[in-house]
Amino acid sequence: MEPQRLRAGVCSWSLRPEHPEHLLELLAPIGLTRVQLALVPCVESAPWRDAVATLRARGLTIASGMLATVGEDYSTIDTIAKTGGVRPDATWPATRSLAASVAAHAGRESIGLVTFHAGFLPHDAGPERSKMVARLREVADLFQAVGVAVAFETGQESAATLADALREIDHPAVGVNFDPANMILYGMGDPVAAVTTLGPWIRQVHIKDALPAPRAGDWGQEVQVGTGAVRWPDFIGALRDLSRPLDLIIEREAGAARSGDVRVALERLRSWCGADLE
Asked: The CATH number of the domain where 192 resides is what?
């Protein structure tokens, strides 16, 4: 049996680049050539419109894209619950329009996967969840029409709730971008156990770490990979049990030394994955 291919990369937004050439400068000392690229700037900001061609010309692989939905406010768990993903009625038309633009761009650039936060999925079936399921199917249809799959981020609901919603959505273009730290930040269960629950849908993994909040309902704290509550050897072992190629994309959204933290994450990832990590 061939060894499982685990491919390391980094989220473009983790490095906070001002333009594609700046991103290349930031990546050079890290040594990574796979990137998950934030796509909203590519459709809204002139400096980023030709980013994919620029990055590919310099030898980078675009592992996937990312869609940020309209009006997201991460100030508190309560604010993101009200403003995130496709759930808010007030921003849904703008989010759908943005998703259509990002889908068209991803299709033109042959980016095969785009991830985003679906929004807080209600635990119980009912009108609110049915509304979200219909909207998520609509977004998935936009991407599928141009040959692109989508993956929802984990964390804003339990793995069991997300799995139930995925069965209800029942769409061939829909999967999961598994972020173990998000589950801890939102207080939504054990990431290792969640890999088993969500395994059939996992299309990509974010490498990020966190400490749980001292009180339920508060944010946890994102920390450098290897210093939080994610049980990394067990987590990598659970991913290996999926027995398929996976991109392991380092994400750092806090801290003042992000490039250094990404390098540390890569070193630790190499120690956990061994020779199987590309």
From this structure: 3.20.20.150
